[in-house]
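Sample entry (311 residues):
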Amino acid sequence: MTPPAIEEYAVSGRDSGPYAITTGADSALWFTMVHNGRIGRLVPGQEPTSHQLAPDCGPTVICNGPDGALWFTEYRAHRIGRITTAGRVSEFSLPTAECGPFGIAAGPDGALWFTETAADRIGRLTTEGTVTEYPLPRTGAFPSAIAPAGDAMWFTMNQANAIGRIGMDGRITVHELPTEAAAPVGIAAGPDGSIWFTEIAAGQIGRRTPDGRITEYPLPDRSARPHAVTTDADGTAWFTEWGGNRVGSVISDGTVTVHDLPTPASEPHGITVGPDGALWTALETGALARIKPTTTRTTITTKHTEQRNAS
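Predicted structure, serialized as tokens:
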């Protein structure tokens, strides 16, 4: 059984903190450097470049926008940023002070949707700069990552032990998780409409099917601190183990596969499918790692729990 080929590419100093990563419309990898206020760009096979923001703004999650630009949250500056593929940066202030924007994703309506961790709100930003905020039905929920699925956005409620759905009309529904204090963070939609999410405190990966069934898959190392998740074209969910220094995958039958990263304590955070079809993850210690899956899968299967929720 052959593990995937994993290669690491240095893109910054060890203190810069590559955090989130996405593939842009220009077929390049774009990533945030949370500790020194930069946005980086890497075309596989070329040298990395970067663009300086305010050093203390804390760029966090980044996504490919509907306008071909890259959009990102500035967690410490409480702004949303936009950078074109040519490197031109614009920034948008938010109505609520000290709101702590974190997750961001393009919605099916052509707007950017984001979470406000410190304000218990979901925000919507048009490409022209109009902001609308939607209060959550709970306080202290710490909404974190957000992702589109069908005609809605789904998001994690890290401190409320739930995932949420917001429709394009602003209506919010909350779905409880089976495991108490699971602390969900990352979230992504699969091609079948399933919602995948990480449970950082429980050491599990969760999946909600379109019919409302929630299944949790325990990881071999329950202390691995799974952080971010993405899905590939086959519907496989790929995730990072921030505390375990690994990347892993899980399929809908509960088969979990994990792989050690080459550099110890590299702190993997964001993960995405790259322009070359491989998986790429941002390592907070200054590199991007490329994971090229093989056709032979090394598997570790664990028991899982299920819960059916109302849609």
